[in-house]
Amino acid sequence: MHISAQLLGIPLVEIPEKYDEVEAHMLKSYFSYLKLNEDILLVHWNMRDSTYGFFAIELRGELLCTESIYRLPNYRKVDLARLFIKLYGYKYAKHPQFQSLIERNYKLPRRFLSGKEEIEAFEQGEYVKMHQSTSVKVNNMSKLLEMAINGELKTDASWKDTYGLSIAGLLALIKSKWYLQLCWWLFVVVVANILGAFVVGMVL
Fold this sequence. Notes:
- By secondary structure, this protein is mostly helical.
- It contains 10 helices and 2 strands, in the order H-H-E-H-E-H-H-H-H-H-H-H.
- The protein has a two-stranded parallel sheet with strand order 1-2.
- The mean pLDDT is 84.
């Protein structure tokens, strides 16, 4: 909001009385960005409903923007919260899960506002403070995703929650850890030697 106000030449103290104008400018920039980058996926956290999500943004766009808005197709949305459930099971982190993951993975920065603090900052016109908080959240989300891709993300999930008890799950577990791969290789070598000795003994 404060960036849009600056681009419009509106002082920050005047944002409340010109809020719709400033928000319309911000939304137009957002929709233009989506339209110009149609080949990218957008990673988000639980932005699925009309209160907090893409639908809510599109609704505000319909109310404030004169031209037609750009609707983001569902196939370009990646909900990281749901993706983690698929990867690690429902018990991968305590609620609130985003904050819990950050606390568990201590290398990540923690300086961002809670939902209640964001509301208070908005009501007090502290738009820069909100912007800084959002930037930290985005950075944290990016790091969580990167750690998950690299197999470094620490969660509360057990190996059973993540891999299950199927043969395919156990093989995936073995492939995910170098020391399990080594143990598996040694096991195969030992079994092969035992079977080889048994076959030789039967032939003789």
